Amino acid sequence: xxxxxxxxxxxxxxxxxxxxxxxxxxxxxxxxxxxxxxxxxxxxxxxxxxxxxxxxxxxxxxxxxxxxxxxxxxxxxxxxxxxxxxxxxxxxxxxxxxxxxxxxxxxxxxxxxxxxxxxxxxxxxxxxxxxxxxxxxxxxxxxxxxxxxxxxxxxxxxxxxxxxxxxxxxxxxxxxxxxxxxxxxxxxxxxxxxxxxxxxxxxxxxxxxxxxxxxxxxxxxxxxxxxxxxxxxxxxxxxxxxxxxxxxxxxxxxxxxxxxxxxxxxxxxxxxxxxxxxxxxxxxxxxxxxxxxxxxxxxxxxxxxxxxxxxxxxxxxxxxxxxxxxxxxxxxxxxxxxxxxxxxxxxxxxxxxxxxxxxxxxxxxxxxxxxxxxxxxxxxxxxxxxxxxxxxxxxxxxxxxxxxxxxxxxxxxxxxxxxxxxxxxxxxxxxxxxxxxxxxxxxxxxxxxxxxxxxxxxxxxxxxxxxxxx
Length: 470
Prior knowledge:
Layout lengths: L9 H8 L2 H27 L4 H10 L2 H11 L1 H30 L2 H12 L6 H35 L1 H18 L1 H22 L4 H14 L2 H4 L3 H10 L5 H4 L1 E2 L6 E2 L4 H11 L3 E6 L1 E10 L25 E3 L4 H11 L3 E5 L5 E6 H9 L14 E5 L2 E5 L4 H8 L7 H4 L5 H9 L8 E4 L2 E8 L4 E8 L9
Helix pairs in contact: 2-5, 2-7, 2-8, 3-4, 4-8, 5-7, 5-9, 6-7, 7-8, 10-12
């Protein structure tokens, strides 16, 4: 008959619990579990703070609110600090739990049960004892950590997130400073990993885009929503592929003001244009020195022409390459709280101007205000197959008016985005007035040409031949 495993008496446990090292270990475990609960709850509390909460914190102007705002301003560093601290605490909990278990339960107790286990499994008595010790440690520690270190504090943090965040703001600020070297390494490593993952994922495949657009066409009621919901969804799909050059107002169409003009000349430009912001340049539009906001002129219209309006010029200008994607520019607008950017070419010269409204129109369509014309694109329709456009009209807009696919001229348009640019690409030179340029079923008549550009064009389409049964 197998010998009975040794039992653990109450007197033995009591004497061990009252010992100094045991009491210190238990106290340390309780303290660590509380710390683990606070850190876990803080993760939920900090990242549950809303923009409205931040606005209220800014109005408080207290040290705690300043600490909270500072921590929220660097979310990656905050998250790294929380994870580092929580993992260190959990490791210490596991170490102390294992030590406490060894003190409370003698080695002979595990060894006897390990001997019994070895009769049924291919293990030695010591291996069985270690396995039992490990299972007790894992189950006990996991239960404590999940219940008291994760579940309960996160439930509380969901209900009282701002209260907990206030209490933990200063400690987290201190921990963030202590773990700065380690958190910096983690952030850099994750940024590189994220960058590689994004590169490997790549942009949406063109075939998938076509499939999505076809699905939109089939799923939307064409009689009612074709120009609304369908166009909106297509705009979202293609949003990340549109460059600044495709939507910007060209250099020739920018309404800018010379810093040397007097105040009355400035007011005349403001009244005639109807814009709310004007780039201000020195000598030429390639040297823009700032932006003038019309709202800054309110209450100053009665000044004489000697008024130094130049003092109102703001230098918060965004310069962007014309190849920049508009989704990236939108994020920059949001970050810097601006509405206008100057597009520059590869040589640093001003090539155009793009606004927040231009970006939003790529998704939701034309935005009309009191200064806009009734039509988004200026054109004259002579018949179903003949139209007159301005040369500067965007090629995409012209295609929409003509009712043809936007990629109709992809193989010949090169880097051009306007109708005049397309004609230059096809002809290879600036055409003369009344010159005819042909491409497939399209005929372009230059109506008006200046020394520098094509002013207006007549587009004639040959109707698509359809065979009918006789």
